[in-house]
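It would be a great kindness if you could assist me with a short task in structural biology. A protein sequence and the structure tokens that stand for its backbone fold form the material at issue. I should value your view on which stretches of the chain appear to form regular backbone elements. The record follows directly beneath this note.
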Amino acid sequence: MSNSELVVLGQDDAVVCCSPMVREPLGEEAAVDLARMFKALSDPVRLRLLSLIASHEGGEACVCDLTGPFDVSQPTISHHLKVLREAGLVGSERRGTWVYYWVLPAALVTLSSLLQAPAGAAAGGAG
């Protein structure tokens, strides 16, 4: 490795692909992928599910731990978890009769980097 090359550990192409919107316009494929993620998060139940999973001890939660806080049926919770999984926000694994979910860190990095404000941006916006 040359002295002018800096390697950032823990990064992959999926994370590095998306520059903040203020630097360059999104390509069509990136916009479709990101819209799927944002659409999944636009539902309050899914947003709460993502938060519950992310804040759960050990960073993963059994589906059995996710049904109690909601006033919806278990099949509805399963549907919302499927939407989050298909949007690339959570991963899952079946262990016996239960399915465990965890937040995919690369997805959060992608979303947060896209919305990152440029350095020195005024809190009230331009003008």
